Amino acid sequence: xxxxxxxxxxxxxxxxxxxxxxxxxxxxxxxxxxxxxxxxxxxxxxxxxxxxxxxxxxxxxxxxxxxxxxxxxxxxxxxxxxxxxxxxxxxxxxxxxxxxxxxxxxxxxxxxxxxxxxxxxxxxxxxxxxxxxxxxxxxxxxxxxxxxxxxxxxxxxxxx
Length: 160
Prior knowledge:
Elements lengths: L1 H5 L3 E8 L7 H14 L4 E5 L7 H4 L8 E3 L2 E3 L1 E3 L5 E5 L15 H13 L6 E7 L6 H10 L4 E6 L5
Parallel strand pairs: 1-7, 1-8, 2-6, 2-7
Antiparallel strand pairs: 3-4, 5-6
GO biological process, one term: iron-sulfur cluster assembly
Pfam family, one: ParA
InterPro entries: Mrp-like_CS (IPR000808), Mrp/NBP35_ATP-bd (IPR019591), P-loop_NTPase (IPR027417), YlxH/NBP35 (IPR033756)
């Protein structure tokens, strides 16, 4: 039941993916969120790049912390208008530059928890910034999001 309620207010989910690192997924996710916010939309970003969570720094909220509420984690709200909600492992680390060295099952469990246990509220768009490559994290993310209406995916590529 909790799985249904935390994403119940999210109208569209958009995955941002790539086959390799360093192509600008996090930059694109951040810029897209800012553009949608500027267009009057309510936006969330779910940063599932567990080994390199860069979005908190891009949005200048890397020193923020997440809190618990009755329905799970409360995301960090960005900017004076608080129009972008953000959840990232970067908020759960002791130091933002700490490396995350986990095996697949622990990563997969955290991704599932991010999908089911974050109190997003009402959002027009939830942008999911994924890690580079085609790893277990992508399969876990898609599996966890399967019950929900996805808008689609953006595949970020480079000319080479």
